[in-house]
Amino acid sequence: MRIGIVCPYTWDVPGGVQAHIRDLAESLIADGHHVSVISPASEDALLPSYVVSAGRAVPVPYNGSVARLAFGFLSASRVRKWIREGRFDVLHVHEPFVPSLGVLAVWAAKGPLVATFHAAYNRSRALTVSAPVLQSAQEKIAGRIAVSEAARKTLVEHMGGDAVLIPNGVTVARYATGTPLPGWGPDGNVLGFLGRMDEQRKGLPILLDAFTRLADERPKLRLLIAGPGDADDVYDKIPKRFHDRVGVLGMVSEADKIRAYHSVDVFCAPNLGGESFGIVLTEAMSAGAPILASDIPAFRKVLGDGEAGALFTTGDAASLAEGAGRLLDDPELRLKFSDAARNAVRRYDWSTVARDVVRVYETVAVSPAGVVEDPAA
Fold this sequence. Notes:
Elements: E1 2-6, H1 16-30, E2 34-39, E3 51-53, E4 58-62, E5 65-69, H2 73-86, E6 90-94, H3 101-108, E7 113-117, H4 125-138, E8 143-146, H5 149-159, E9 164-165, H6 172-176, E10 190-194, H7 204-215, E11 222-226, H8 231-236, E12 246-248, H9 254-261, E13 266-269, H10 279-286, E14 291-294, H11 297-302, E15 310-312, H12 317-328, H13 331-344, H14 350-364
Parallel strand pairs: 1-2, 1-6, 2-3, 6-7, 7-8, 8-9, 10-11, 10-13, 11-12, 13-14, 14-15
Antiparallel strand pairs: 4-5
């Protein structure tokens, strides 16, 4: 099949949606499909051969974060040209109602359309107000996919209709093995974090508080942090006597991200909410890292209600510290969670997930607009 995929967020800045689209595209290409992705990107961005730039993105506050979107005459022109020249059998738009390329692509498209919904939130005033305007676009979408029950609920409550539930995928083999970063663990004393350091809902301040609570009584305890953000802001939140025990890597390459997962004894995900799935968890699970995550619905679902990783009370630094201490003191428990995580994550491997997505493509290619049947049924 000739498949066109639309990414709403800039390719320059790592994020869950971009990673999802990258891995889906590469899985489809490996299976023999022709795939082209259009995405916002800066003019000097190094893009994979299958990605086309729709122009530079601008930062916009969205869903408790800052999304980098592209929307305007130049982007619209590039999207129309890409669709016209692509001659796609199916156009797959991610987050079609975010004010970016997805909306432009839906309005310009004439053939079979599939949309994937990633975001989860309780209320969106902007989406509620714009729903009548987006209704004509929604009617063109023949197949709807939600990556989680929370994302499906958001779609139903804000826009109506329904969606097939197909989770985010992860290339399990990519993360399965890795050499620890120089000078790090696992040695029974390393906590880890990966995410945007300056994004409140990622919960890094909760982890820093918990680390501070544990550090005095555990002189060998260290914390490894990776992700975009200002390192100085991190160090400002912890006592100076602990600065030499905290490593801040900043943005890392894919290779170093994998090594980071293999450098920790406990991977911490202190997110406060706003997550519809938890791709960072599936990556860590693929690496076999013992996980301690906040007890938000998306994380509880991925971790099988605590079977494949430990949960702590969301937003509670004392609960995080207690859970981290228990795991650090119990190598057998860490091994148990590691083995359970490696087994549980297999259902999210792209070899399975991409196949389900293709079934949606095949259905919309021969069906009128509407909700397709669940490919797992």
